[in-house]
Write a structure and sequence with these properties.
Radius of gyration: 16 Å
Helix content: 25-40%
Order of helices and strands: EHEHEHEHEEHEHEHH
Shape: globular
CATH superfamily: Aldolase class I
Number of domains: 1
Number of helices: 8
Strand content: 15-25%
CATH topology: TIM Barrel
Structural class: alpha/beta
Largest sheet: 8 strands, parallel
Number of strands: 8
Mean pLDDT: 94
């Protein structure tokens, strides 16, 4: 069964706690939180203190995507705040192996992500060390962008590398019922969706439509 992770980037920030409770009731599997530092991507969002304040609103796993230049400075903060999964970018000029090790050492699941223009092969050296690979199907930094079609081929290429490895394939950007079907058919396990879910009157119907259980 495909999992759906609503992205709070598109939620009403004045009532985030209420939004999370509605999403949990509607059948969300994870809550996706985009952390942007204004350097790695040209936007600035929330940080660990906000995640900590939201943690009490739900028991759903927090799927935290770090679009940050220096994630190593904040691993403990995000663990303390309640992050369950922490994803870093392969494009960082850092020791990626060590960062992934540190994330897992702190008791979180480790993920690796890459931009749509970054060759898929760049994540292959890390596949034995991650719990998930997050494929961006739009350029990271802003919500509301259109799904990049070549993402489906990248999903297939990644799936061929999985073999017996346990990592999940997650896709984020421009996800709606049509693009969700492309991703599922290609082999995705988790779909991150923001604008589509939050612009649909019923979160339940939106999430069900992404899972393929109902059309909106």
């Amino acid at each position: 069964m495909i999992q759906v992770a609503p992205s709070l980037l598109s939620a009403d920030f004045s009532i985030l706690g209420q939004e999370i409770k509605k999403l949990e009731k509607a059948g969300a599997d994870l809550i996706h939180l985009d952390i942007m530092d204004g350097h790695f991507v040209p936007n600035l969002t929330i940080g660990a203190p906000v995640i900590k304040s939201l943690r009490k609103a739900t028991s759903l796993p927090f799927d935290v995507h770090l679009m940050m230049t220096n994630p190593e400075d904040f691993l403990s903060a995000f663990k303390y705040a309640g992050a369950d999964r922490l994803t870093i970018h392969v494009e960082l000029e850092k020791d990626i192996h060590d960062l992934l090790f540190q994330i897992r050492k702190k008791g979180m699941k480790a993920g690796i992500s890459l931009r749509p223009t970054t060759p898929i092969e760049t994540v292959f050296p890390y596949l034995e060390e991650v719990d998930l690979v997050l494929l961006m199907s739009v350029e990271p930094g802003f919500g509301g962008q259109v799904f990049i079609p070549k993402t489906t081929q990248r999903i297939k290429e990644l799936k061929t590398q999985r073999k017996n490895l346990p990592f999940l394939i997650e896709v984020d950007g421009g996800i709606n019922p049509e693009t969700a079907l492309f991703c599922k058919n290609a082999g995705a396990d988790i779909l991150v969706s923001g604008n589509y879910i939050f612009n649909t009157p019923s979160y339940l119907e939106a999430i069900e439509s992404l899972k393929g259980e109902k059309n909106v």
